[in-house]
Amino acid sequence: MSARTSLFALAAVFCAGALATGGALAARDSGKSRVLALAFNGLPTATPASGVDLAVSAGARGSVLSYTWQELEPSPGRYATRQMSGLRYFTQTRKLKVFLGLQVIETTVKATPGDLVHVSFDAPEMKRRFRALVDALRPYLNENVTYISVGNGVDMYLARHPAAWPAYREFYADAARYLHSVAPWIKVGVTTTFSGAVRKARRKVADLNRLSDVQMITYYPVQGLFQVRPPSVVLGDLRALLEISGSRPLVLPEIGYPSAPALGSSQKQQSAFVDALFSAWRRLGNRIPFLNLLYLHDLEPRACSDMAAFYGHARTEFRTFVCSLGFRQADGSPKAAWKALLTGASALR
Question: What pTM does this model have?
Answer without folding.
Answer: 0.91
